[in-house]
Amino acid sequence: MKFKLIFGIAIPALLIIALAIVASIGEVTQKNNYIKDIKISEIMTDSNIQTSIKIADIKLTNDNILPKRHELPNLGACLVDNEGNKQKIEAGNLVYSEGGYDYDIDPFESRRRYRSVEVKSNDELTIYIHLTPSNYLRNKDYNELLEQYSDYDELIVYENDDSSAYGYGRTISCYNLGQEKINESIHIKLIK
């Protein structure tokens, strides 16, 4: 009877507790690699801006013996005039991808969702961030883009960490982005 109690209940319970402890040890490490600048002439195809521009890759590393989930933040992108002559404007939507850009994904839905990925045990996963330019940027040729948007100096990528990602609360957008949030943002220089 003692062996049934030991092998039937105590040892499995200890194994479950040990697995729970091992699973909680360690985190997924994240290394962001954003591009430094965007050359406007290089993102043009057939006289129009590309539908997707890769602006970053994220390397996620899991050194744990069990798979882990990692949550990626909700991001926004703005065009900014450093002299302050023009108001900040939405540059488009940022979409996460585990490979090339998926043209079947709805960028508006992707932007609203909180992204969660699984990183296998003792493995590395690369996630790419693609910018899908706003329609008012996409439907212009190179000369029109330069004429209308030449005052903008950089693209900033900010983390939208408010509750609006879940459908309630105050929405952070380029129009009400504070200076503190701008300073914390990733800055990508625009080269004309």
Could you characterize what this model shows?
This protein has 192 residues and is α+β, with helices and mostly antiparallel strands. It has one domain (28-191). The chain has 5 helices and 12 strands. The strands form 3 sheets. Strands 1-5-10-8-7-11-12-2 form an 8-stranded mixed β-sheet. Strands 3-4 form a two-stranded antiparallel sheet. It has a two-stranded antiparallel ribbon with strand order 6-9. It is elongated.
Core attributes:
alpha+beta; 5 helices; 24% helix; two-stranded antiparallel sheet; 38% strand; eight-stranded mixed beta sheet; elongated; 192 residues
The overall strand count is 12
- Largest beta sheet: strand ordering: 1-5-10-8-7-11-12-2
| Cα-atom radius of gyration | 22 Å
**Average of the residue pLDDT scores:** 79
- Measured between the Cα atoms of the first and last residue, the distance is 81 Å
SSE string = HEEEEEEEEHEEHHEHE
Beta-strand percentage range: 35-45%
**Uncertain ranges:** 163-169
Form type: elongated
Largest sheet: 8 strands, mixed
Structural class: alpha+beta
* Count of helical stretches: 5
- Proportion of residues in helical segments: 10-25%
Number of structurally distinct domains? 1
